[in-house]
Amino acid sequence: MFEYYLLLTLLIIVLFIVISSLKIGISPMPTSKSARKIIVSTLQDSQNSTIIDLGSGFGTLAIFLAVNFPHKKVIGYELSLFAFLISQILKFTLGLKNLHFYKKDFLHQDLKNCDLVCYLFPIGMQKLEDKLFDEEINTTIISNTFAFRNIKAKEIIKDNSILKTPIYIYKT
Ligand SMILES: C[S@@+](CC[C@H](N)C(=O)[O-])C[C@H]1O[C@@H](n2cnc3c(N)ncnc32)[C@H](O)[C@@H]1O
């Protein structure tokens, strides 16, 4: 009987994640390990004290950043409720004091003076690009897989996976 309820709960959670992914436009799929390493090495020389993961999903990328940059504040904004809850559980389990997750739309947050990382989708990239122009945000932006339409990448690094996923690095 316990197994039945457990399975039912898991199915409901998966269903909620699928529905919110359809609404938002992307699932909480995590950035690969090799891409995470590229992101960390790219941010190594940055002087900014805050890194924001725009759409933090289950929190794995933000956790990796918080562990690798213990003296920086890492923020993750996420719209999907269950992905956000899972990231909160992971944060408290790991006891990472420099990591903060918020169930908020990053398009309505102050992104100035922070390094930005994202793994979005074409419409999400377009909205982010509009915000960067409107608010004149000048910073480093690292985007997994998807490029901006009008901003030229300073560098494009391919990860080590079979897919050779591009990581776009912008200095706006
Ligand atoms: C592919 S996942 C990436 C997760 C994580 N950043 C990583 O790289 O491992 C993209 C996430 O962005 C979230 N998202 C998309 N648009 C958003 C917005 N405007 N505000 C907050 N979260 C958003 C989605 O819900 C999804 O969980």
Describe this structure in words.
The protein has a single domain, classed as Vaccinia Virus protein VP39 (Rossmann fold, 3-Layer(aba) Sandwich), CATH 3.40.50. The protein has five helices and seven strands, in the order ααβαβαββαβββ. The longest helix is centred in the first third of the chain and has 23 residues. Helices cover 41% and strands 19% of the residues. The radius of gyration is 16 Å and the shape is globular. It starts with a helix and ends with a strand. It is of the alpha/beta class. It has a seven-stranded mixed beta sheet with strand order 3-2-1-4-5-7-6. S-adenosylmethionine binds next to α3. The site of S-adenosylmethionine has 24 residues, from α3.
How many E strands? 7
| Uncertain residue ranges | none
Helix content: 40-55%
Q: What sort of overall outline do the alpha carbons produce when their principal axes are compared?
A: globular
For the largest sheet, list the strands in their spatial order: 3-2-1-4-5-7-6
Q: Please write the CATH class name.
A: Alpha Beta
CATH architecture: 3-Layer(aba) Sandwich
Unique ligands: S-adenosylmethionine
The pLDDT mean sits at 95
Helix/strand-derived category reads alpha/beta
Radius of gyration: 16 Å
Helical stretch tally: 5
Question: What share of the residues does DSSP label as strand, in percent?
Answer: 15-25%
In CATH, what is the homologous superfamily?
Vaccinia Virus protein VP39
